Amino acid sequence: MERIEHRQLGETLYYEELPNGLQVYVLPKPGFFKTYATFTTHYGSIDNHFQPPGKEAVRVPDGIAHFLEHKMFEKEDGDVFQHFAAQGASANAFTSFDRTAYLFSCTDQVEANLTTLLDFVQTPYFTEAGVEKEKGIIGQEIRMYEDNPDWRSYFGLIESLYHRHPVRIDIAGTVESIAEITKDTLYLCYETFYHPGNMLLFVVGPVDPEKIINLVRENQAGKTFSRQEEIERFFPEEPDSVANRRNEIRLSVGISKCLFGFKERNIGLTGDSYLKQETATELVLEALFGPGSDLYQSLYDDGLIDENFFFDYSLEKGYGYSCIGGDTPDPDALLNRVQEEVPRILEKGISEEVFERIRKKRLGQVLRALNSPEWIANQFTRYRFNQSDLFRLIPALEELTPDRVNRRLHEHIDLDRMAVSIVKPLEE
Amino acid sequence: MGQMPFETAAVGNVRVHVCPTEKFKTTTIAAMIQQELTPETVTKTALLPSVLQRGTVSHPSTLQLKRKLEDLYGATLHTEVFKRGERHIMHVGLEIANGRYLSESPKLLREGVAFLMEVLTRPVVEDGGFRRAYVEAEKKNLKQKIESLLDDKIRYAAQRCIAAMCDGEPFGLFVYGRTEDLPSIDPIQLYTYYRQVIETCPIDFFFVGNVSTDDAAALVRELFPYSEGERPPVEVNREQPTVKQVKEVVDRLDVIQGKLNMGCRTGVTIRDDDYVPLLMYNGILGGFPHSKLFMNVREKASLAYYASSRLESHKGILTIQSGIEIANYQKALDIIRKQLEAMRRGEITDRELSQTRATLSNQLRERQDRPYELIDFAYHSLLSGREWSLDQLLKGIESVDKEDVRRVAEQVQLDTIYFLRDKGGKSDGAH
Prior knowledge:
The complex is a heterodimer.
Chain A: E1 2-6, E2 11-17, E3 23-28, E4 35-41, E5 49-51, E6 58-59, H1 64-71, E7 74-75, E8 78-79, H2 80-86, E9 90-95, E10 100-106, H3 110-121, H4 128-146, H5 149-161, H6 175-179, H7 183-193, E11 199-205, H8 209-221, E12 232-233, E13 246-251, E14 256-262, H9 271-289, H10 294-301, E15 310-315, E16 320-328, H11 331-348, H12 352-369, H13 373-385, H14 393-399, H15 402-412, E17 418-425
Parallel strand pairs in A: 3-11, 13-17
Antiparallel strand pairs in A: 1-2, 2-3, 4-10, 4-11, 5-6, 5-12, 7-8, 9-10, 14-16, 14-17, 15-16
Chain B: E1 7-11, E2 14-20, E3 26-36, H1 42-52, H2 62-71, E4 76-84, E5 87-97, H3 109-121, E6 125-126, E7 129-130, H4 132-147, H5 153-165, H6 187-200, E8 203-209, H7 213-223, E9 247-252, E10 258-265, H8 275-287, H9 292-300, E11 304-312, E12 317-324, H10 329-344, H11 350-366, H12 371-384, H13 390-399, H14 402-411, E13 413-421
Parallel strand pairs in B: 2-8, 9-13
Antiparallel strand pairs in B: 1-2, 3-5, 3-8, 4-5, 6-7, 10-12, 10-13, 11-12
C-alpha cells in the first residue's frame, strides 16, 4: 500500500495496484458520516467499435454501454438494489462517453456494501427476458431526454461539432438501436471492458485505508480472470472542421436555448499537460464568458442572457470542445454580439489583472468542490484515466501564468471552429 | 456525532446558529428570512433576492459586485426563495474558501461576512427606491424564469399538480410568483416592502465551517444593523382540508412522454408524533429503488424510468410522480392506486420495513456531510417549532412498526390525479 500525502490540502491518499491489474484508491475523510465508493470501467458510449482480445473486430449497437450498466443490477436472485437497501446503502450507476461507474454511499456496513459492489459488477447475469424487459424502461428514459430541451441543445451542439466521432451519438442510443441488443452482445462488451485491469476503485469516507485495501485484495484474490490483453478500440478519422455551423430544432419550450462551442484542435494529451490544458482553457472561458466579464454583463444588461448562462470544457483523448450558452429570448442577437466581441478580445488578450482575479476564483471553486466525496471520487477517476492527477489541480493553478492562458486563448477560441445549437419554441 | 450540531446564540432579535467543524474546506454562511406565503407578496418576495445581488453601496454596479466575489477567491453568493409549508423563505448566503488550504493563506471569513451583510442591508438606493434599472431587468428575468417552468416537464407537471390540488390555498402558489403581478411592482414600493422584511421578519443566520460560535455572533452583532425591535413570528394556517372528491386534471402540450403526478393529503406533518411513521410510509411507498412504486411500476411492469413519491412535511402533502408512455396511463394509474391500497391494508413485508429503516437512516445521516443540507435540516426543526434531532429521528425509525405505518396510511387521502400528455388523440378528463 502506497501513501501519498497532500499536505497543503490536508489529505492523504492510499493506493495499491492489485495483481489482476485493478487500481484501488482510498481517501480517508475523518468527521464525515458517509462513505462513497465508485467502481469504474474505462468504457463508455464512444467505444462502439473494437477488437476483443483474440476475436474479430465488432461494431456494437448505439447505447449498449448504458444498457449494460442497467443490466448489471439484475441477478439470478433478484435486483442488486435490494441488497444495498438491506445494508442501508444508496446505490446507483452512470454511463458517460468514456466511463461507466457503479457506486454506493452508506453510513453503516461499509465492508458489506463494498463487497456487494465488487461482486455484483464482477458477476454478469444477462438473460433474453431481462434484456427485453429493460428495453421498455430505457425506452422511457430516452423519451424523457427527448422532452428535455437542455439535453437536446447539448447534443445538438456536439452533433454540429463532430462529423463522425461517436461522441456525437446519444449515450442511451435510440429506441431503434437498443432494439438490436441481445444478451450475447452484452456478454461480448462485458468480457472485453470489465476486466479489472481496465477498472478503478475509489473509496472516500471515514474509513481505515488498510482495512479497505485488505478487503479488496482478498476479494479479488478469490476470483479468477483471464490475463488482460490490450483492447483495440477503433475511431473514425475525424475532420478538423466542424460538421455543421448551426443546428436548430423546435420544441415545446417557453424560451429559446442557445449553445455555442469551439472544437478543440489540441487533443491526445495525457498527464500534467492534459490537466494544464484543461485548467488554462477553463480560465480562458471564465475571462471571456464568466459573470465578471464585460461581455457577460453587457449581455445580461441587455436581457440577452440570464443567470443560467454557463460555460463548460470537455477534454478526452479523442475529442474536446467548449460549450457556452443558456436561455435567451433572441439567439441570433446573442450570437451576433459574441461574434463581434470575440475578435476584439483576441486582439486585446487577457490582462494580468483579470488573470489574477479568475485564477483566485478557480482556486476557491476547487476547494469548494473538494467538500464533496462524490466529486472527488468521480473526478479523480477521470483524471486517472487520462494518466493525470486530481490533486495536481491546486498546484497547477498556482503555477499557471498569464502567458500560458493567453496562448490557450488564441489556440482554442477560433471562430472558424465554432458551432451553434439552438432550440426554439414551437411555432403556433 | 449525532446530536443537532448547531449552537445557537441570540444577537438582539436575530438568532445565530453555528456548526463549528473542520470537515469542510469552505465556510458557509446563510441568512434565512421567513415570510407568510400569500398571493399579495409571493412575487415581490421572489424578486427581492435577484435585485439584492445586482449592487450595493460599495459595489454599485453588478460587474463590480461579481468581481469582488471573484477576488474573494470565488466566493459564491447564493440567493433563492423556497416554500416550507405556507411560509415563503428567502435565502441569501455566501460560501467562501478557507484560506489555510492555499499557498497564499488569505484570511477571508470576516471579509466574506461583511460582504454578505452589505448585500443584505446596503443595496443601491436611488429616489427612495431600489435602482430602477435593476428592478426592471430583474422583473424581466423573473418573468422568464416563471415561463421557463414549461421547459422542464418534470417540474412543470409537479407544480401543475400542486396548483390544482391546493387551488385557493397559499401552498398552491408557484415559488417564483405570478407574471401578472410584475407590471405593477415599482422600485419604491419594492424597497419599502424590503425594509419591512429585513426589519421585522424572523431572521436566522447559519454558519458552518471552521468558526466559533462567539466569533460568528460577534460578526453578526458588528455587521448586521437591524437587531433591535420586534420580529413577530410568522403565523400560518395549519388547517388540513379533507378530500371530498378526487380531482382529475389533464394538460395537453407537445410532449413525447406523459407525466403522471398525484397528490395526497396525509393529515400528518413534521409537528406531529406520527412524523417518523410518515417518513417510513413515504419510504416504503416510493422513496427508494426498493420501494413499492419503483418495484411495481418500473421493475415489474416496465412502464417507466422513474416512479417515486416525495413528502412536503410542513404541509403534510405526499406527491407521486412518474414518466410513462401516454397510452399506458390507465395501466400505470391502476398499479399506483394498488400500491396505495396495499399500504392502507398494511401489506408491508418485513423486508420492506427493514430496508426502509436502513436506507432512510442512511439518508438522514448523509445529509450531515453537506453544509447546506446541515442548515436545511436544522431549519426544518426551527420552522416547525418542534425540534427533531438526528438521534431522535434515528431512534424513531428503529422503533416504528407496521401498525404505526398502517395508522398513517389510513389517513392518507388521494386528492388529485394530474396527467400531462400530448396534443393528439381524443380529449378525456377535465381542464
